[in-house]
Specification:
This protein is an alpha/beta fold and 286 residues long. 42% of the residues lie in helices and 13% in strands.
């Protein structure tokens, strides 16, 4: 069970021009439904929406095999601490062949289906806007889901306020959010090479392996699923420790316990969207 969270904003937040800019954007909305994963971006957005709009905010967290169960649990605890209405939306992305076949545009179909449902929920609650946690720095990676949210009229207040990841973390810390320095997260489908079918079992194996590595003290990491081989990415600062014989053995054991036959350590370390490196340049263009 997730422990109750204590959120205490820093008084300096009130005078921060970045936060005032974000609040000004949110106050133009006639209510907002926040796509709320519980990551630092959507957490800051949720807190700011509460500060700007009061009770005219609804947080919605998608729950599916594409996300570790711990994410929905944390999101629920954080929403309670923020005193914002929160709902869990069970989604069935893997039932859609356009998602499960895992083509490079997988994220477009996934986001299109999810945000279409969020738009319906917002309309039912008489909330004028659906907002997401896309920030300025997210433009730097291949994100086909962005096309879907634009088509559906989803607003991205963090980007509109010209906030990058460092700004988001700084403001989240000032707002008292406990996950202000939490590692970046992405859905588990991002661990499987394009063109290889997504299944609930495969994604659960990734989640088990990553939980095992987190138990070893690694925080910024990915386990990329290459069939029976787990390709492990850890932060550059952790590379020397990961290469020590006892730690290597523990990493291999964690991956085997999760269901892999072999484990390898990626010598380039953790980086966002490493599976996008296999895409041809035209595909990467936005």
């Amino acid at each position: 069970m997730t422990q109750a969270l204590d959120i205490r904003p820093d008084p300096a937040l009130d005078s921060d021009a970045r936060y005032r800019r974000l609040l000004a954007i949110l106050r133009t909305l006639d209510g907002a439904l926040v796509a709320f994963s519980g990551g630092v971006d959507s957490s800051l957005l949720a807190a700011a929406a509460k500060d700007a709009l009061g009770e005219r905010v609804l947080l919605v967290t998608a729950r599916s095999p594409l996300h570790p169960p711990s994410e929905a649990q944390f999101a629920k605890a954080l929403a309670a601490a923020l005193h914002v209405d929160h709902r869990i939306l069970d989604t069935l992305e893997l039932d859609d062949p356009a998602v499960s076949r895992n083509d490079p545009d997988r994220c477009y179909h996934c986001k299109r289906a999810l945000f279409s449902r969020l738009a319906e929920m917002a309309a039912a609650e008489h909330l004028a806007s659906v907002v997401d946690g896309f920030n300025r720095d997210d433009r730097d990676d291949y994100r086909p889901g962005r096309r879907a949210t634009r088509e559906l009229g989803v607003r991205s207040p963090l980007e509109e306020a010209a906030l990058g990841k460092e700004d988001v973390r700084a403001l989240a810390r000032l707002r008292g959010l406990p996950n202000w320095d939490a590692p970046a997260r992405a859905c588990l489908a991002s661990r499987v090479p394009y063109g290889e079918r997504l299944t609930a079992e495969r994604l659960a194996r990734v989640a088990r392996a990553e939980a095992g590595l987190e138990a070893l003290g690694f925080t910024q990491l990915r386990v990329r699923d290459h069939g029976l081989l787990a390709r492990v990415e850890v932060a550059s600062a952790d590379m020397d420790r990961a290469c020590q014989a006892p730690v290597r053995a523990a990493i291999a054991a964690a991956c085997r316990a999760a269901g892999y036959t072999w484990a390898s350590l990626d010598l380039e370390g953790y980086r966002t969207g490493s599976l996008n490196e296999a895409l041809a340049p035209p595909r990467r263009a936005r």
